[in-house]
């Protein structure tokens, strides 16, 4: 009898060790899957080092579903304002020697002031004359763009009710060309809506003589590589003598900032109606 009990005890110990081994293997398997999923999400959220200026066809195919147009219903609107260039990258240089990066930042800060007063959450990709790169980066321009996309995409993953407005200034070889223009990603329906509302408000409130229309684009790095509705606002032409002077004027900057905010508010209202 004692021998039988010892055999049963021995067999139970073996079964216990067997199930512990199976449990350990299962946990390892789950950990590997979780790690790989994290890597995939990291790539899709804007960690795009090593990618070309235009994302691959596989990533672009996702935009056919207009992932930039998805919007949250639980969270309030978050507006990311991206003052283009900065640091070693001055952007375009005006006829009056004004640097685009400085005008971009001034307009962006004005937009932030107005949005904050309206109780809208604002995130700036930069708040001073700095680039979003490390000194050790071999390609600072690419690193800068990737970091901007990362900021936008991480925020969008946390809150689908996020949009991005990138502030820039234009330039052209013909100095007579003028007028603000807003660009959006070709395959983003909500991006197009955001561009339209901002363009309309700028044209109306600024009483622009040379009224431009919003324009689709699938080459701008920021437009292609961000997940939320994103637009690029070219506030004017620094190559135009008159417009370059106006863009340096504080009151003019406040006026165009106010027009952009009006466009954002109009977009917010339209998307709320669409989502009801």
Query: What can be said about the biggest beta sheet?
Result: 6 strands, mixed
Tell me the number of strands. 6
What is the count of structural domains? Answer: 1
What level of helicity do the residues show? 40-55%
**Number of helical runs?**
8
Would you give the CATH topology? Answer: Aminopeptidase
Strand arrangement in the largest pleated sheet: 2-1-3-6-4-5
Give the strand content: 5-15%
How many angstroms does the end-to-end distance come to? 76 Å
Fold topology:
Elements: H1 2-44, H2 57-62, E1 78-83, H3 100-117, E2 121-124, H4 140-158, E3 162-170, E4 181-185, H5 189-205, E5 215-217, H6 221-224, E6 230-237, H7 241-247, H8 250-274
Parallel strand pairs: 1-2, 1-3, 3-6, 4-5
Antiparallel strand pairs: 4-6
Helix pairs in contact: 3-8, 5-8
Write a structural description.
There is one protein chain. It contains eight helices and six strands. With 276 residues, it is of the alpha/beta class. It has a single domain, classed as Aminopeptidase (3-Layer(aba) Sandwich). A six-stranded mixed β-sheet has the order 2-1-3-6-4-5, with helices on both faces. Helix 5 links the parallel strand 4 (181-185) and strand 5 (215-217). The protein is globular. The termini are far apart. Mean pLDDT is 81; it is low at 23-74.
Question: What are the main properties of this structure?
Answer:
Aminopeptidase; alpha/beta; 276 residues; 6 strands; 50% helix; 6-stranded mixed β-sheet
